[in-house]
Amino acid sequence: MPRRPGGASGRRGIDPPDAGCQERLRRTAHSAWTRVHDGPYSPQSSPREDPPIASRLPPLRGLRAFEAAGRRLSFTAAAEELGVTPGAISHQIRQLEEFLGTRLFDRQHREVVLTPQGLAYLRSVGEAFRRIEDDTRILFAASDPTTLRVYASTNFAMRWLVPRLPRFAASHPSIAVDIANPIGPPPALHPRRFDLAITHGPAPLAKEAPARLFDGRLVPVCSPGFLAGHPPLTHPRQLDPDRLIHSRQRKGDWRSWLRLAKVPEIDASRGIKFDDLNLGYIAALSGMGVMLFFANLISEDLRAGRLIALFDVALTDEPDWLVYATPAPERQRATLLFRDWLLAESQTPR
Fold first, then answer.
1. What's the confidence (pLDDT) of residue 279?
2. Which residue among 26, 29, 240, 258 sits deepest, i.e. has the most Cβ atoms within 10 Å of its Cβ?
């Protein structure tokens, strides 16, 4: 791609051609255009003289390298993600900086830091890539009206939905389910993005009334192996604060539960901490300690004896799990079938 004048490298751009040269280039381009289209040149059929959009856009490789490096704040991590060398990432970003005429990173001894211009540009580029990804997924799904686009959080999908999907597939083999679980709060719900969404509490900006799946109460659970290797737990005051499993996604759960159980003297700040709720679940399943988890999401674990619910105290002020149906017209029947199946599964003991 040609360099723009005044880029970050400080090199001078190519001098523009004189008027005679410009006229020769125009005639050559017109002649080539008429040969391609098998017709004589005429003023009415002349191509537009505005430069094509591609010539005004930055290099795609540079954008991909910049987005990955900016998101990871590491040229090495970006290189691993894109399957190239760190040197290639550095080169592509320098080309992008020259094209834009500004620095995007401050390159320090062992790290790179986004400049203010780079931070602002990263937001724009990242959002553009996300929109392309979303629209691509929508186009692929739209080509098959029997593919349902379903939003569900990772916790719900892993603990409750995915283990039950084989039963739905056996009953409705012509309906495929595409589950998306982006990080963060539920996205805006409309037919272009999702046919159905399962949320913990009301979805933002939802226009349709949801159906209630089940409550969101939290109960303390542990594995049989943990109980076998520790003193009996018959009362909440016997809980070891160093064996409380926490998720940083849900700070304050243990403090609320201990207050409800009338044992506020137990230090809720101690224990084993994880960033992700599912890591805490795996830790509890592996016998590391006691965790508060959504009772209805682990109902099969409780019935199978993989986990044991302790005491008769539950946090019941959590929002319900809800189902929103927002289907595109061509998928309405399949969406309502899936919603009704979800509601039936929530009422069926296994």
1. 92
2. 258
> CA 305 to CA 229: how far, in whole Å?
16
Q: How far apart are the first and last CA of the chain?
A: 62
Q: Which two tokens stand for residue 325?
A: 């149906």
What is the bridge-based pairing of β-strands 244-247 and 290-294? parallel
Q: What is the DSSP letter of 252?
A: T
Angstrom distance (rounded) from CA 71 to CA 90: 15
Question: 């919603």: which residue's tokens?
Answer: 339
Q: Which domains does the chain have, with CATH numbers?
A: 58-137 (1.10.10.10), 144-215+319-347 (3.40.190.10), 218-309 (3.40.190.10)
Task: Indicate the residue type of 299.
Answer: S
- Beta-carbon count within 10 A of 87 CB: 10
pLDDT of the residue at 52: 55
Residue with tokens 């508060």: 292
CA distance 160 to 342: 10
pTM given for the model = 0.58
Please say whether the beta carbons of 203 and 321 come within 8 A: no
pLDDT over 70 percentage in the chain: 77
Residue with tokens 């799946």: 213
